[in-house]
Amino acid sequence: MRFAPLAVDALLVIVFCAIGRRSHDEAVLAGLVQTVWPFAIGLLIGWALAMAVARNTRFDATALWPSGILIWLGTLAGGMALRAVSGQGVAVSFVIVAAGVLALFLLGWRAAAGALRS
């Protein structure tokens, strides 16, 4: 149960990448790993950031703030940086769409979970 939020995040990053590949008529399964790996590493960076910020307090991976925001920013910035370094596209329009979709996915489930807890 402790790693369930990480599993949810990882699944949503994979879904984000699969949707992107499908929307550009690219083979979803054939190239999915190439599209996922930068964002997966970015996700781990975001998790590390969130855990580092919470090191003196109780880490809540389901919290929208600061965990969710840091995980989202780490996933986005890390993913885009790694895409750029590896020669994959980072057009401004893609960054904007990725920021929105990743926010919806990574922050959305946390917001919903928080609302259900209230």
TrEMBL record:
Keywords: Membrane, Transmembrane, Transmembrane helix
TM helices/strands, residue ranges: 27-50, 62-82, 88-109
This protein's record includes keyword Transmembrane: yes
The organism's place on the tree of life at top rank: Bacteria
Protein name, UniProt field: DUF3054 domain-containing protein
Organism of origin: Nocardia mangyaensis
